Amino acid sequence: MILYPHLDVNTAGHLSIDGADAVALAREFGTPAYILCEDVIRENCRTYLNAARRAFGPDALPLYASKALCFTAVYKLVAEEGLGVDCVSGGELYTALRAGFPAERIYFHGNNKTDADLQMALDMGVGTVVADNCDELEALEALAAKAGKTQRILLRITPGIDPHTHRAISTGHVDSKFGSAIVTGQAMEISRLALSKKHLVLAGFHCHVGSQIFDVEPFRDAAHIMLQFIADVKTETGFAATELNLGGGLGVPYTEYDRKIDYAAVIAEIGEIVRERSAALGIVAPRIILEPGRSLVAAAGVTLYTVGSVKQIPGFRNYVSVDGGMPDNPRYALYQSQYTALVANRAGEPRDFVATVAGRCCESGDLIGEGMALQKPSRGDILAVLTTGAYNYAMASNYNRLPRPPVVMVKKGEARLAVKRETFEDLVRNDCE
Ligand code: LLP
After folding, report:
1. What sign for the dihedral angle of Cα 237, 153, 292, 326?
2. Which of 45, 67, 286, 324 could cross-link 32 (Cys pair, CB 3.0–4.6 Å)?
3. Parallel/antiparallel/unpaired status of strands 243-245 and 414-419
């Protein structure tokens, strides 16, 4: 096993990904390519669903935060597993709908939904809109009235928690572009406004404290603060929230030094906290929704590259350049995210060569990682970067006019194309003469 049970070394000494030979996959589908293990995603969905049902009751509904990884086959898979989905744009809504995702199980997020987004949600029959701010509430009310519909909503609230994670991905603190803060009084204000709207049905509240979180504390704090808020809203307005969405954010191991989280145990703990606090506050425990992204899909992904140049700069460092880079994985450039990498065609050998893995873009910050321990590679080797299922394909760009890699789904050794490799023709498709 290498980092995760679905990754191993086969008899040829190659990396195997759920029974498929990574070198053979590279040969068949070309590089760079994203490989995704279907069963890993399915298993993670089941872990969340079963744990949520045990902890929160039979109507519990984990949502897949599809910003982590979005294409048709993923929505189909998540729908089959019985989860709901969190969408954040017209593009995600469109893809989900086209994949046949049940609209009533969609939660529509975003801090700046356009009128066109809101109209699309109404037309699609999206189950729940998570309204971010008063302007959006007014716009949604007007559009719903015009359409003669009522829309179920949650309100996004900022509980004021710093989840001790990377600042750029911590979204629950007060100084945030997301939601309305409790401490400023704006959360109560938007609740009153929502309750006054004829075409909006307020079901409850949402918060999201951050991403890649390993501790249960931020979730415990969020539950405490949000349940207190629900109790305060009840006292002030008489409204009893029936749903509390505590967002996503549980972390995954990217390296052997990262902790593994027992998701079911964390969910059980959240269930306990909610029951206990609700009883103490004298409110009916709301239905709890969680919306994991990374922890459902990250571990399922491996990116395969072909090694190009290997440079050893005496007195400085080693550079291994690959045929992808920040356009397919911008996470090191953005967050200095750590990854595990290895040479897939010599996966059984010791990783005793330390290198900076660089992309092929004309930009020195185009790195996949620094100080990475690899087997010493040479030109033509296949380099595998692990745990790339979340926020890689979803964040990919065409910088330097590089076509986006394909997504290949693997299941028990069998591979199928889920997203085709972009062609040069795709790159110029929208260019006008
Ligand atoms: N719900 C809401 C409202 C969110 O904003 C997010 C992530 C999630 C759920 C899912 O969080 P997760 O379980 O995936 O941590 N691009 C960054 C991550 C940004 C996360 C943004 N919001 C990265 O590559 O690390």
Report:
1. negative
2. 324
3. unpaired
- pLDDT, residue 171, reads 64
Instruction: Of 80, 128, 70, give the one whose Cα is nearest residue 101.
Output: 80
Atom number, ligand 1, closest to the C-alpha of residue 334: 24
Sole residue written with tokens 């070394």: 9
Residue percentage of the chain with pLDDT more than 90:
96
Q: Assess contact for 243 and 201: CB atoms under 8 A.
A: no
Q: Which residues does a 6 A CB cutoff place in the pocket of ligand 1?
A: 65, 68, 86, 109, 169, 171, 208, 211-212, 247-249, 291-295, 331, 335, 391
Tell me which amino acid residue 9 is.
V
Q: Which residue has a Cα nearest atom 19 of ligand 1?
A: 169
Instruction: Write the single-letter amino acid at 343.
Output: V
Distance CA 268, CA 52 (A): 8
**For residue range 33-61, what is the model confidence (pLDDT) as tens digits?**
999 999 999 999 999 999 999 999 999 99
Q: What is the DSSP string of 126-173?
A: -SEEEE-SHHHHHHHHHHHHHHT--EEEEEEEE-----SS-GGG---S
- Cβ pair 251, 213 in contact under 8 A: yes
CB within 8 Å of 305: residues ≥ 6 apart: 31, 32, 322, 323, 324, 382, 383, 384, 385
Spatial separation of the C-alpha atoms in residues 245 and 142, rounded to whole Å: 25
Asked whether 113 and 132 are in contact (CB, 8 A), the reply is yes
Distance CA 71, CA 88 (A): 14
pLDDT in tens, 365-408: 999 999 999 999 999 999 999 999 999 999 999 999 999 999 99
Atom 23 of ligand 1: nearest residue by CA position: 391
- Please give the distance, rounded to the nearest whole angstrom, from the Cα atom of residue 172 to the centre of ligand 1: 11
